[in-house]
Specification:
The chain is α/β, with parallel strands linked by helices. Helix 3 links the parallel strand 2 and strand 3. The protein starts with 6 loop residues before the first helix and ends with a helix. It is built from seven helices and five strands.
Length: about 150
């Protein structure tokens, strides 16, 4: 039987070298994408005095992640829809050193019925002084355009 490789093992210590760039984590379900963020990246960011924005596509995922990051006061969790509302209202969004775009296939899948997905996607693409991490198990069509 083949041993499963997890994202934390694949990335190793490379995340320490991420600066002002977009990072794509495209890996199947249950390969540890979220585990890497919560158990490795966020503690590192805390030690480095950096903050993070964790974006999710659904309220149910919001609640799951919120429960897991309760010990990280430097992390703000938000839905893409909430981010889009802030942008549409011209409310200034604070700077974040790390932005995690979890389930980022949202921009394509929800774009069928949500006319504002491009707003959040454009905002993410415009970020330049931080690390934006795009994560999805089904984001190949999106990742081909990044």
């Amino acid at each position: 039987m083949k041993n499963k490789t997890y994202i934390t093992d694949k990335i190793g210590e490379q995340f320490r070298e991420w600066h002002s760039e977009g990072v794509i984590i495209a890996s199947g379900t249950d390969t540890g994408k979220t585990t890497f963020i919560i158990n490795t990246l966020l503690p590192y960011a805390l030690l480095e005095g950096k903050n993070a924005l964790y974006l999710v596509n659904r309220k149910s995922l919001y609640e799951q992640i919120k429960a897991k990051i309760i010990e990280y006061p430097h992390v703000k969790i938000m839905t893409y829809q909430a981010l889009q509302a802030l942008i549409r209202k011209n409310i200034e969004i604070p700077h974040y050193d790390y932005i995690i775009a979890d389930e980022c296939h949202y921009f394509l899948t929800d774009g069928i019925f949500n006319q504002y997905t491009d707003i959040a996607f454009s905002w993410l693409r415009s970020q330049s002084d931080n690390v934006v991490i795009y994560m999805s198990a089904t984001g190949n069509n999106l990742f081909n355009g990044l």
